């Protein structure tokens, strides 16, 4: 089993000019990991269309591909939504970078049945390009959808080139037990995001909060074991959304969980609330220089710790 790193795990470094895609590629190699998953979604201080990439012209993409190949890494691409022109652009980028899997997600901001229905037609329209480029598309359970809803979409599209992107933590935002979500998605999974979460409070509001792998409430070892035993994936991508918090995005009980126990037990937040509160973690520059420095250092430590945790799990379940 190969282990990769998603650029989102270093979002504060990218947003604050401390890392670019070439730094990230080398950093992944220095951690002793096997691949990169590149997020091409716009964000603070990033490219207005391509996120962690600075462009998509052939010369630039050739440089990125050469860097990836120089360090002997695999490549996957992260995009979002299903509008065909967006997927076509992502497919071209993936093809140029020799990426063989793209992740996307359907809903943004809230769950929409209209978006779910439209996604089926959108994705069907790009299946010929998936075949042409020999690239698989993984639909992520991205905070708004239960595993069953993702599986229903995959079955309706009915293509060998379209499967699931299994995020082991996002199920919690839809009130679904994360281990059960992984168990359901595993047979359909093409790609992964591996992370850990706790539930804590922002003032009086329960939120799902990222933490380093092994420090949270998710049974990450069982999730890893299930992916080894019940899926065909040969890669696990670390996407430690830390520091990050999200509200619950579906009604309580939607995914089968309705109380704050077990993986949903409420725990203390990872940072002092007098410095920064959970829903402010993602953009700490908006709070204070003190908060930004604290969270950048924590993010670096989280990536290193999580990489080591995944290597231990790989050794246990996949051998040396």
UniProtKB/TrEMBL annotation:
GO MF terms listed in the record are: isomerase activity
Where is the Xylose isomerase-like TIM barrel domain positioned along the sequence?
30-240
Annotated signal peptide: none
Q: Which UniProt keywords apply?
A: Isomerase
Q: Can you tell which superkingdom this protein's organism belongs to?
A: Bacteria
Entry's Pfam families?
A: AP_endonuc_2
The protein here is known as Sugar phosphate isomerase/epimerase
Question: From what organism does this protein derive?
Answer: Salmonella enterica (Salmonella choleraesuis)
């Amino acid at each position: 089993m190969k282990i990769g790193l998603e650029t989102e795990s270093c979002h504060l470094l990218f947003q604050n000019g401390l890392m670019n895609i070439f730094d990230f590629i080398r950093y992944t190699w220095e951690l002793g990991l096997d691949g990169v998953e590149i997020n091409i979604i716009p964000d603070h201080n990033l490219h207005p269309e391509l996120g962690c990439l600075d462009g998509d012209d052939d010369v630039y993409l050739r440089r990125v591909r050469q860097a990836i190949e120089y360090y002997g890494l695999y490549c996957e691409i992260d995009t979002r939504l299903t509008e065909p022109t967006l997927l076509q652009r992502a497919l071209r980028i993936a093809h140029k970078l020799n990426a063989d899997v793209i992740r996307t997600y359907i809903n943004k901001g809230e769950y929409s049945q209209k978006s779910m229905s439209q996604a089926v037609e959108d994705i069907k329209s790009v299946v010929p390009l998936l075949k042409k480029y020999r690239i698989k598309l993984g639909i992520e359970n991205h905070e708004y959808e239960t595993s069953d809803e993702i599986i229903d979409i995959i079955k309706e599209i009915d293509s060998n080139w379209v499967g699931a992107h299994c995020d082991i933590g996002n199920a919690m935002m839809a009130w679904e037990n994360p281990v059960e979500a992984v168990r359901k998605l595993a047979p359909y999974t093409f790609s992964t995001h591996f992370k850990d979460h706790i539930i804590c409070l922002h003032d009086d509001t329960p939120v799902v909060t990222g933490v380093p792998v092994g420090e949270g409430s998710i049974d990450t070892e069982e999730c890893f074991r299930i992916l080894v035993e019940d899926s065909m994936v040969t890669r696990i991508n670390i996407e430690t959304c830390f520091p990050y918090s999200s509200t619950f995005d579906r009604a309580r009980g939607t995914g089968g969980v309705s109380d704050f126990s077990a993986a949903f037990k409420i725990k203390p937040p990872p940072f002092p609330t007098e410095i920064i509160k959970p829903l402010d973690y993602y953009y700490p520059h908006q709070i204070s220089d003190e908060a930004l420095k604290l969270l950048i250092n924590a993010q670096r430590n989280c990536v290193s710790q999580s990489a080591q945790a995944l290597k231990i799990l790989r050794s246990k379940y996949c051998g040396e």
